[in-house]
Amino acid sequence: MSEEPQAIVGLEDLGRDLAARHRVTRSAGSTVDPAVVDADLAAVRRHGYVVLESLIGPAECERIREAVTPLLDRTGRNTFEGERTQRVYSVLNKTRGCDGLVDHPRVLALLDRLFQPNYLLSQLQVININPGETAQLLHPDDAIYPVPRPRPPLSAATVWAIDAFTEENGATVVLPGSHRWDTDRRPADHDARRTAVMPPGSCVFFVGTLWHGGGANRSDRARLAVTAQYCEPWLRPQEAFTLSTHRETVRAVSEDIRRMLGYSIHPPFVGMVDGMHPKRLLHT
Prior knowledge:
6-stranded antiparallel beta sheet, alpha+beta, Jelly Rolls
C-alpha cells in the first residue's frame, strides 16, 4: 500500500518532509557539561576567541604528527600561505589522523550554540610553520563573505597546537574585541594583541569576524598545527568537500563529520541532490 502524500502548509512542513527521511543525530557536543559550554561561549562573545587547553593528550598529538608528517611537502604559493610554511589540503582523503580534532565534542558544543543546525566544515588544513617564516597578514576569516559588519559571525575556526605554541615559534596572534569592529576598521598599532600561547593538545577557537594571523617563527624549530573551519549551513564552504572527498572517506568518518561535509539538509531543501537527501548517494 502506498503512503498518503504529506500535506505541505508552510516552509517548515516542507523542510520536515525532506529532512525527516534521514533523521539528524545529536551532535557529540551534547555530551559536554552545559556549564562548561556557557563559560566557553561567554569568553568567545566577550573577546572573540577562547583558548581550550589540553583537550587531547601527548600520545594523541604524537599519533597526529606521525600521520601528517609524511604529507608535508610543498611550501606556500604566496606570503599569505607562507613561503616557509607547509600546508596540507584535502586532509580527510589522506589520513584519519585528524578526525578527532574536527568533531571534538568541546568544539561542537560551541558550534551548536553559535550556528544553525547542520553547520558545515568549511576547511581543514595541516599547517607547519618553519623557522624564518614572517608573520601572516592579519585578517578576519569572514571577510570572504560580502556582508557588512558589525554582525554575528558566519563562520568559526579552531587552530590546534600539535607542537606547543610560543611567543617565538609562530603562535596565532588575535586582536581581542575585533570581532565587533565595523566593515571599514583595520588594525592599528594601538590595538591590543594577544598571542595564543598554549601547550600541545590545546586549541584556540575564534569566530570568523575576529582579526587574527599566524605569528612569525623566530625559533629554530617548526611549529605544527591543524586548523578546522566551520560555517553556517546556508553558506558556501571554502573547500567543496562534496566534490573533493571520496565517498569511501565519507562512509568512514563519523556521523558528525559526514553531516559537516554536506551530507545533510538545511531546511527546507538546501543541499538536496536530484530532489533527495544527499545521504542517499552513499547507498548507490
